Amino acid sequence: MKSSVNAGSRLDRLPISSFHRRVMLLIGIGMFFDGFDIYIAATVLGSTLHSGFSTFPENAMFISATFVGMMIGSFMTGFLGDRFGRRFTYQFNLLLFGVASLLAAFAPNMTLLIVFRLFMGIGLGAENVVGYSTLTEFVPARVRGKWQGIMAVFVVSGLPVAALAGTFLIPLFGWRVMFILGGVGGGVVWYLRKSLPESPRWLESVGRVDEAEALMRQIEEEASEGQPLPPPAPPVASAPSRALSSLWGPALLPRMIVGSIALIVINTLLYGFITWLPTFFVKQGLTIATSFQYSMLMSVGAPIGSAIGALTSDRWGRKPTIVLSSLMAIIFGFIYPFINDPVLLPMVGFALTIPIYVLVALLFGIYIPELFPTEVRLRASGICNTFGRGATIGTPFLVVWLFTHFGIRGVLTLMIGLLITLIVAVLRYGVETGRRSLEQLAQTTI
User: Fold this and answer.
1) Which of 27, 101, 174, 193 is the most buried (most CB within 10 A)?
2) Proportion of the chain above pLDDT 90, given as a percent
3) What angle do CA 362, 367, 372 make, to 5 degrees?
């Protein structure tokens, strides 16, 4: 039996091939439906409120149930993924949120819809953690930022698609059709994703070196396309301890801090502002149709922003891109509350959406999964996501209070304060991860 497979270096020196594109596609389609199911809240809740199926406080409960479920899912998947593997985990959570979504489509009242949303949230939170982390372990370091950012484009494309579907389908068929689309899509992808391989990095990290070696040979044969491959870099020596307790040690604790703060901030931006846009517009006197149209226009900034993050993070570096995007969001967040013109309002909102989704790509998709060693990657990412999701459980109620007392200005003041906190945390505790192998990063301290 081999003592070392050197999976990391062997994967990093591979040319991009049909293997990488297949892995990206199968993980990405599942992540798209993850994003679609998350973002349907924006259109569904505007419709349930308008029709009288729900009240404003019940909408807050719906969103909070989503966060509770995502917090549970984020925490559970970290331990399941590091213990039983990436493949088992991404299939289980996809099936869970697909089934729960179909049940939600037939909920007879808002109470049961909230209960089903809780179980959907568990699957959604798990998929977000394991999808990004799994792709991180397959893609070469030289293009990892680009590919991880493209994965984020898959996810956030669920926002404009959900907005577009809601605009045209809800007036015809009602809000339940949105859950049917998410549930059926999740089931189809679950079946297709059976062919995805396990992560060789994870197999090697848990001592299953024969399986890792056999899988690496299959991957190398497909990726080489009959051409000779360059020799891999020498293996990087493993650190003496990769137990859970290492996350609180001097090497990884700063990363846990910046990861947790980053995900608290980005979750609050998404679910304290973006998700509430149709409801804000309705409360400000716009018709339900106009609110959907405005939200759909602004949502186009989601894939554009994520694409910008994907294309710039390898070139500019992770930390500079995060800081610059945060500053741009602060500027447009300051301007937005003062816009009353019906033409300028969605334009400035669009400009605000773009840097927020650059941050989505950087923080969810690229930066956080890179920060931690393979042996604890899912647990560390899961814990950071747990803090992010957990902190936003109360966000809907805080948003309702701020909007009721201070209007949209109160909501955006909170967002700007969080963005300033993110900039400080990244500059103080962040480590630059761009174009560096995961094994090298595991040995790096600030």
Assistant:
1) 101
2) 50
3) 165
Contact criterion met (CB below 8 Å) for 118 and 65: yes
* 215-254 per-position pLDDT tens digit: 999 999 999 888 899 999 888 766 544 567 788 888 899 9
- The Cα 166–Cα 181 span in angstroms is 11
Among 161, 201, 157, 209, smallest CA distance to 378 is for: 201
- The residues, ordered by sequence, that sit 6+ positions from 356 with a Cβ below 8 Å of its Cβ are 266, 269, 270, 273, 274, 301, 305, 325, 329
- The reported pLDDT for the residue numbered 1 is 45
Task: Tell me: pLDDT of 283 over 70.
Answer: no
Domains of the chain by start residue, with CATH: 7-225+246-442 (1.20.1250.20)
Q: Give the tens place of pLDDT for each residue, 289-303.
A: 566 666 667 778 888
The angle subtended at Cα 121 by Cα 425 and Cα 414, nearest 5°, is 35
Structure tokens at 203: 């197999």
DSSP per-residue letters across 72-133: HHHHHHHHHHHHH-HHHHHHHHHHHHHHHHHHHHT-SSHHHHHHHHHHHHHHHHHHHHHHHH
DSSP character at residue 271: I
